[in-house]
Specification:
Length: 323
Amino acid sequence: MRTLFPALAPFDSGHLPVSHEHKIHFERAGNRDGQPLLFLHGGPGSGSHTDHRRLFDPQKFHIIQFDQRGCGKSTPHGSIEHNTTDDLINDMIALMDHMDIEKAHLVGGSWGSTLALAFAMKHPERVLSLLVYGIFLCRPCEFRALYFQGGVVSQLYPETFRDFITLLPPDDRHDPIEGYRKLFTSRHEAMRNRALFLWTHLEQQASRLIPDLRRIDEEMANPDYVLSHSLIENHYFRHNGFIDGDRLLAEAEQRLSGIPVHIINGRYDLVCPMVTALQLHEALPGSTLTIVPDAGHSFREPGMTDAIIRRSDELFNHQPATG
């Protein structure tokens, strides 16, 4: 079973202005002459973590991370203005151009898988390969699984979901995503902070087959993380991620032709249910699908960590370096 590589300091970091308002924070680690690998974090709004780069062999890869607009160390923090999927795709192009990288491997989990697929379909000429895990296409059926009464999370974590849904006025419980948007703009600070906490806590609770309560408490104690994750994720989800997930599936084979695609999903992923990964695999006959039989959503679960590292090794072994 493969485990995370040792902690790795960046050899370069900075802020790249990408609009009049936004600056994105980036870090580069590993082998600057290695194959370029651009990692896309989840959320939207979660920000990058130093452990993400520990999924990749630092001797083989030039590992690039960035905090998407409004989260992590990017500024302004928590901003949803001029913050759409197309904006993030343009930021990726700007970042690659800034680093003189023509093509890169794209790796992303959860929302990062969405962004990786959307980027590859718009700019296939800039992609060496795709490695995506915890597949999410921002479709209503996927939102229902996590946020709506009767969804899988409400069935398996009824006590956590009860706190999430009962904060909403009864008239808003039919659409929790829109209902929480209203709470996020409440004039009552205590109500607003409670809503921000419960939105992120629901996902945290459902993200592992066996919840890691220590890590959940640690992350929920970070108000900056909770703020950006809740505000930005809700913003994107109210707009279905600014993509058409069904159209993405329908056009995937044609538009991703020639790009190696590796798909990984935990069998018991409640946040991004297994069915979406299977549908993506069936839409891309040349793709590989790895089902981790004893994992949920988090890349930190041993089976997920092992699968991601093994597939990333295959990217290096089978894909020539370019750029």
